[in-house]
Design brief:
The structure is a single chain. It is built from twelve helices and two strands; from the N terminus they run H-H-H-H-H-H-H-H-H-H-H-H-E-E. With about 230 residues, the protein is mostly helical. It has a two-stranded antiparallel sheet. Helix 5 runs antiparallel to helix 6 and helix 11 packs antiparallel against helix 12. It is globular and about 45 Å long.
């Protein structure tokens, strides 16, 4: 036990921070200007996910499915796997999240739009942050923008925006379940960055904590339990 306590996060790193940032920059260079399209799609998803009705309600979640599967395949399976043996397993989690989002959109038909309350407004805030501000965070840590994390291209922003969109939905146990993989990834990514060490990790953990707090409020509204509880 004492031996395990002597380890630090950096002891579990399978690659150097330089290798990671070079991987990010190379991926962004390869896919540019697809970033513009994915951010535009994200911006269009925030409102439709709340206000679409009937069969149209499935569309935003099917688009999210495609983006989660794309990130799982392109980022984890193709780029991250050569430097991290856990990447294929994480890719599987992203594919599973994509399938769950599709199931929610098609089978459950999404949920009815609702007037934004505290957690709904927080969700919109998280989504806007993930789309517009999170890609600029390399500037705060004195890194080139070429290493940025963009919605639909890389996992952190994709998880943040998706969690924000989910928080705008009607309270339901399914929504809380759909937040587990995005939260799990943000926590994992945050710890990875802290192992570099990189202060960006604290930001990711703070975001995960904020989303988790909003999700816990999502469980109950004025003492009223979730639908499906």
């Amino acid at each position: 036990m004492a031996e395990w306590l002597s380890y630090s996060l950096s002891d579990f790193l399978l690659f150097s921070p330089r290798t990671y940032w070079r991987m990010m920059a190379a991926g962004n260079e390869l896919l540019w200007p697809l970033h513009v399209a994915t951010v535009a799609i994200g911006a269009m998803l925030v409102i439709p996910a709340r206000q679409a009705h009937g069969r149209l309600r499935a569309a935003p979640f099917l688009l999210l499915t495609l983006l989660w599967c794309f990130v799982g395949w392109r980022f984890f399976w193709q780029e991250y796997a050569p430097i991290n043996w856990t990447a294929p397993y994480i890719a599987g989690a992203f594919f599973a999240q994509g399938a769950a989002l599709a199931l929610y959109g098609v089978v459950a038909g999404g949920s009815d739009a609702r007037t934004p309350d505290a957690d709904g407004v927080a969700g919109i805030g998280f989504a806007v942050y993930g789309l517009l501000l999170h890609p600029l965070t390399p500037l705060a840590w004195d890194r080139p923008l070429s290493s940025t994390d963009v919605f639909g291209i890389a996992p952190d922003a994709t998880a943040i925006v998706t969690a924000g969109i989910l928080l705008t939905q009607q309270r339901h146990t399914t929504i809380v379940m759909l937040l587990l993989i995005p939260l799990g990834w943000l926590a994992f990514s945050g710890l990875t960055h802290l192992a570099f060490p990189d202060p960006h990790g604290w930001l990711l953990l703070l975001l995960a904590g904020g989303i988790a707090a909003a999700a816990s409020r999502h469980l109950f509204a004025r003492g009223k339990p979730l639908q499906g509880s």
